[in-house]
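=== RUN LOG ===
request id: a7f3
mode: sequence -> structure
chains: 1
length: 314
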Amino acid sequence: ATTFNKKLLENYEKNIFSVAEEVWASDDERIDLVIFLNGIAIMTFELKCNTAGQSYEDAIYQYRTTRNIGNKTRLFRFKAGTLVNFAMDLNECYMSTKICGSSTYFLPFNMGNGTGVNAGKGNPLCDYDFPVHYMWDDILKKDTILELINKFIFIETKEETDELTEKRKIKETVIFPRYHQLDVIRKLIGDVKENKTKLNYLIQHSAGSGKSNSIAWTAYRLASLHDSNDESVFSSVVVVTDRTVLDEQLQETISGFDHTIGAVETIDDKKNSKDLRDAINNGARIIVTTLQKFPVIYQEVDKVAGRNFAIIVD
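=== RESULT ===
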């Protein structure tokens, strides 16, 4: 976030990336491409060439049917192997954070094609390169990968009921941002760093495309944002949801992130407007509240002169 800590800056510059082709993950599995950070495998790629009659769908099939059979391959072991696995051809790219046979779930990692009401899936055609050029032009650059590891990738923990035994169990999932999430947050943070509190922004997020994660990522990035003089831009970030009861998914997502910047204050149905006022007055870094509580304390916040706030309204 800043350049204050010279030792951290030195360590950041010492990170070593390496790329290996045709990596034997086991006696029977050979991966097209593996990327390592300081000797630790973090990404795999299965690459297909459309002009040879194959596509990303063949790469997905390969991951599902011939990779990590019986969950025995060290390279794909959950929380001990790679962070993300890409199935890619010349036109499109898909990703998965858990390779587990036929149930392996892949999400698109494409830029999107078209604008406005004509926007759709895939990638736009490119005059000078393949449509997936953004992968090597941007995503696979050192700073981007380190930003992904440091500021985006996290483990989501959910409690679920087993349908057969009816017992509650904990399900963990590695969350890797989709391209549209990464893109909008980087654009937003870049613009706010330049304009600070001058502008308002409207972000449109379609249903099921990871809105809660995007809000959480944005809140954490704004809370740790510093300007060119290494000054903190915002005193607090307030996330306001319009539901009467605080959205449980949103609350869990934000609270579940790494709390390196300080405590997250959630003003849920067990708390009142006074708790919200106190959280703002005390300078909590991230505050999550409902719209109903927000106007009540408008006149009561008494220590905010000279302080800047980012308000994210869901």
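=== NOTES ===
The helical segments are 6-14, 56-66, 133-139, 142-152, 179-195, 211-223, 248-255, 273-281.
The longest strand covers residues 17-24.
=== END ===
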